[in-house]
Amino acid sequence: GIICKQLCFTEGDAMSKNLKMSVLLDFYGDILTDNQREAMDMFYNGDYSLAEISEEVGITRQGVRERLLKSEKTLSGLEEKLGLADKFTDMQKDVSELISMLEELQRETGRDMTALIGIAERIRDR
Fold it and tell me: Does pTM top 0.70 for this prediction?
């Protein structure tokens, strides 16, 4: 399942690129070949270096780099066309805001909003 990952990043920020690619891999990873998905998972989720991936999968560092670049291009292209990761992130933010509003309403009115808050949290955490 998708783990709540925020897509708040600035261009050029390596950590943000890693987070973005990890999220895109969650959304679109099944589109990649097994070899591409494995390399992307090792690099972005497993924090493997190019050399470590090269050794593990039995191809050159340059081969790993090319595989990653092609995979990144594929994932970024899908997100550009479909926008599912951005939509999901926006929905999570909106539901989090709704939860905060329900909690505030519960505090101010004394009315029990536990059930509504629970439903909203389940929606947000999917």
Answer: yes
